[in-house]
Amino acid sequence: MALLGTISVEPRGADLVAVCFTAMASPCELLVRASQLKVARELGECVAEEAWRIEQKFSRYRSDSVTSWLHAHRGAPIELDEETASLMNFAERCYTISEGMFDITSGILRSAWKFDGSDRLPSGPLRSRCADFSARAATIIRYCMVFARCQPRDRATFSQV
Length: 161
Known about the structure:
Layout: E1 7-11, E2 16-23, E3 26-33, H1 37-58, H2 66-72, H3 82-97, H4 124-144
Antiparallel strand pairs: 1-2, 2-3
Helix pairs in contact: 3-4
């Protein structure tokens, strides 16, 4: 089986091995207690392949992803596959448990914050728009649990889950 990306295997002490790869624009590592590099690599390949599969399926940056499909069909009731429905249910639980701090639709907030290392916060109309957006998140997620019904300016992103 051909890998979708590259991985490296790095010994980290007597019996610890790091299997490194990149997924979702981030460095990833699987730390394995193993004395054999071959075993660690095989495990790492399984983990990396799953991360890459998830990235392909859910990345908002891919036009062929479930996320893009949801955005293209926003406003219309649609049936979700079991994995996507489970992820939506998990996101709703995270939202509830975090008392609203977790928001699967927070991808839209990238218009408010530029991740440039500064501590600038949105102000004026943009600040009001972000507050309005956050207030609507619980309703949006409830609609998405079984049938996705997203409002025209909402954008789901699975990178937080």
